[in-house]
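ingest -> validate -> predict -> emit
validate: passed (alphabet ok, no gaps, 445 aa)
predict: started
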Amino acid sequence: MTTVRTRPAPPTAIRPRVVARTGLYAVLAANAAVVACLFAQAGFASNALIVIGRLFGLYGALVMAFQLVLVARLPWLDRRIGMDRLTSWHRWTGFALLWTLLAHVVLITLGYADGADVGPVTEIVDLAETTEGVLRAIVALGILLVVGAVSARYARRRLAYETWHFIHLYTYVAVVLAFTHQVAVGTTFTASSAARTYWYGVWAVALGALVLGRLALPLWRNARHRFRVSAVVPESDDVVSIHITGRDLDQLPAQAGQFFLWRFLTPDRWWQANPFSLSAAPDGRSLRLTVKAAGEGSAALRHVKAGTRVFAEGPYGAFTTLHRTRSESLLIAGGVGVTPVRALLEDIEGHAVVIHRVTAERDAVLHDELRELAVAKGAELHLVTGPPVPDRLAPGELARLVPDIAERDVFLCGPPPMMNAVLHTLRDLGVPKHQIHFERFSLAG
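emit:
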């Protein structure tokens, strides 16, 4: 007798990421149009360089405010777009901001120098000495140049995260200096009450979003939930699971696949925040994270004591069932990337195929739990072992394991080289881009 597998109703066709991304673009475009209108109403200077320079300055201010929103870690945006994508957009708009403000300074200086019949260096020194707010703008630009330099890939890879982050915090000083410059000398800002109201509103929304997402919400949640370590359980020689308890955890809006920034409040670790995924679906009573000793900081977590207070920022991430577009799924985990995949399997509906890719069987952390969950949920589980070369998840191998792969949502988590290889394979197999879900840990400012 043949067993027929019934398919649950497919998820909604409206993709949350598309809605959120389109909304962001629409808001930015609408504000760009408003800025252009206010600029035109303020009138034009006789020197074309000054006119264009002022317009670059206004759009630089708008991009700077937009950047603050991107890194505000607002839950609605984060769950739909993901912190990694928001951070990537923040990085690229940061470089756009830098060039925009450089153009503003250069064009304004050349324009005024031409009118005064002096050299550009003499003119910018004169402006800094005689015009209110110009010196602050020059300092702000200098800060942004330093931040831009250390954010370039070559420098970023050679700096410790804590060092890079400390330097990056000076961006907020640059924001304040730039805003006071705009208030002092911005012709569009001072041209009308409507322009002043608009710009005060833009900065109030941007700074308010930042304070809400980065300060107020984490403080409120930690004061309410009072997270503590309840147990530390070794999973292997270099992997440990940490169980967290607290108050009213059933009210914490965490989902399987998401992560928190964890600070374990011990004398030697309180200042370190590390992104670790939940390795079990939240049950309203406790949270669990599973960590591999990949460095000195994560290795020390094995020695965290039960009862240790924890400051947790989050939940963050879009690696959740919210983004499903198909009724059946493929979950691919590489190494310790199994942690959010294991949580997703617990939460996901419909038939699932799980592929757990490791170098050797002894590296298959949480595989016994995966096996039990697969049996309980009627999922297929494949443990794929062997060295990275040859690629055991090449197109032919993956198609053999999952013949209907193009008809499934694919959730992928693992080391960057493995993820890049699998993403290439999925494209070769014709899996539509909107059916592929992954997230890279990346933090900003």
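Residues 83-116 form the longest helix (34 residues).
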